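Interim report, section 4.2 (structural modelling).
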Amino acid sequence: MSAIQPLQSIATTFDVASPFVDGGDLGAEIAALAIQNGNTQRATAHAQRAIDEADQERADAAQVQAIHSEASSMRAQAWVDGGIGVAAAFGDAFIPRAPTGGPSGWGAASTDLTAAATKMVDGFFAAAQHDDEADAASDKAAADRFANDAKDASDAANDATATINTALDFARSYVATEAQTQAAALHRA
Amino acid sequence: MLGAFDDTMAELYTVISELRQNVVDSGNGQVASNDAETQRQDAAKRAAIQQEQANAADSGSGFFASIGHFFGDVASDLVHGDVGSAFTDAGHDLDAAWNSPAFWSDLETGLRDVAIVAAAAGSVILTAGAAGIVVGAGIAAAVTTVTVTAEAGAALAGIKTGEFAANAEDASAGATQATNRMTELQELTTDVIADLKDADKSHQQSLQVLTQAMQTNDATIVAPASMTVKG
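Predicted structure of the assembly:
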């Protein structure tokens, strides 16, 4: 009795260059293409996940920067308000009073001017701080959105892995069935 | 020839096994590194929250409590004849008051109230002067001085309270940063574990396939030999 002949259909040759499966075996080609497709999907999903996570990191950093910016604005407002308050107090002290003892025209103007300046500065800083708060909220929302996108990409990678595993199961089953068929044929011969 | 095939498969098996172990070790290392970083960020977050609370407007001793502590400590030390401790405690109490948001908030509010009262007193003096009631120039000057000093003092105290509010906001930013970083690290760890599971499963399957290939190869050696012996 002669030695068992090697099973030709199992000998799928993988090549880096396309096509990477020898022609002539449809089942093996389908399995290989499914695996290749799954690999590509998984690589794409991983790349997308990395991009989303990087975007999330940038949005998080922007949120923190916006809060720091608001703090900086609050600090500046404190100093400007303090400066105006001290200037107003010294204006009261050094601007000569009217002969009646009441505030002179310059004194009244100084009081009005400092009050208006305080309101204007407070309004300016409050607007800037609200802008910073809005930026922080917007950046936080963007970060959450990128986090969700990254999770979606992870899910897509998991789906691709499941596809690959299914293709591998199919390939194993296909090869085993084919081998059994050929062995049976050989046995009958 | 078939023995050479087994040798090659065995070598491949060893390489894949080592690769599998390396991937697992690398993944474990990344997870451990992320855990350590998470713990550092957690500590940073706690510190930031503490700093935020310390800079809150109602944090620390108020104006009268601070003054009370100051005089109480100094008086107690002096009564016990401990002059050195009196200086030490005084310095400590002054430092605590300087760094107490509640102290400066109370001081600002108090000085603004004083300025309002003094300004009202100044108006009364003006009204009295207009009505022909003579008020001493010294009193009018004193009222003006008190008004100006209180206004300026309130403005300066306002700078300090504003600084505390800004510091609290900065600390809030620090806490947010630490929280965000911990979330990112948690996601990274999840990614690493998922990728590690995939890679490990893939390597495991490769090893199973190699084992099957070697078993099949062995069977192809044994079966013909057996058939030849029988034949």
